Amino acid sequence: MPTVDDARSGRKIKRARRAPAASEGSAAATTQLQVRTAEQIAAEQTVERLAVRIWVALVAQKILGDMSTMLDALIDSHLFTDSDEEADEGWLDDRHKREKEILDGAIAEALDAYPDIAAIADIPDSSDASIAGDIKQLKG
User: Fold this and answer.
1) Is the CB of residue 99 less than 8 Å from the CB of residue 67?
2) What's the predicted TM-score (pTM) here?
């Protein structure tokens, strides 16, 4: 490494050589970044929002179905007539655990079935009016 005398202090200073810039040299392969327009960004965000809305609606349908089953079992059970508070507290803990399992299971199933926007876009048309329009718009 070349050194330069520092005239003021009598020290030698090491100078590092400057590395050639990426644009220098014959083998410099540069990739140009393309600037996205506001319309392109808005279109991408719209697709992402639609996909998330559809995904959330599918998860909500699964959760509501499972919760409905759980509540039907509650109605059919004798817990409404039971006056034992300790049993009620135990049932409440079990119900909270079951609700968490339902939520976790529905989210995991939806992530497995629809891991990305392309998978969501491949969903067949739904008879559910709340998401049918979103699915058509996502496909179009």
Assistant:
1) yes
2) 0.61
